[in-house]
Amino acid sequence: MPYPEMMVAPMREDLVRVGFQELKTPDQVDAFLDGERRSVMLVVNSICGCAAGSMRPAVGMALQDSDIRPEVLTTVFAGQDLDATARAREFITGYPPSSPSVAILKDGDLVYMMERHQIEGRSPYEIADDLKAAFKAHCT
To answer: Could you confirm whether 48 is annotated as catalytic?
Structure first.
């Protein structure tokens, strides 16, 4: 059962505030991602502590501190927008469901994946450095 929206809204806003388009339905996911050729950062957001304390701050820092970045920023919220998250995960091939997580797609293909186990227990600075390296490798 999803959490009440009033509890989740600030967690959604953390990414929307830095330019992410939130996708709440499978149709929105398809309209936004299907056939997209530009570089896309797809963040699977979560209510967990590692999303709040590490992943969301790291994503914001990486985007702010990098001249090279994905052209399209999208997010779904695991545990909240269940159908949209399930559809978005179909674009993340070869990995089990993981939340939070950060994927980069280019020309419609998954080129980078940061899973929960690469987020948990790490500082936002460490994660941001990994993301900036991924931007340089895949978003030029």
So the answer is: yes
Cα–Cα distance for residue pair 64/33, rounded to 1 Å: 23
Note if 50 is an active site residue.
yes
- Do strands 40-45 and 101-106 pair parallel, antiparallel, or not at all (unpaired)? antiparallel
| Of 119, 43, 117, 124, nearest in space to 78 by CA | 43
Q: Tell whether pTM > 0.90.
A: yes
Q: In order along the chain (140 residues), what is the average pLDDT of each group of 10 residues?
A: 87 96 98 94 95 97 95 97 97 95 96 98 97 95
Residues near 93 by Cβ (< 8 Å), separated by ≥ 6? 110
Q: What is the CA radius of gyration of the chain?
A: 14
Q: What is the Cα–Cα distance from 128 to 65, expressed in whole angstroms?
A: 9
Beta pairing partners, 74 = 21, 42
**Active-site annotation holder among 40, 42, 50, 114:** 50
Q: Which of 15, 29, 44, 48 is catalytic?
A: 48
Q: Tokens in use for 44?
A: 């699977």
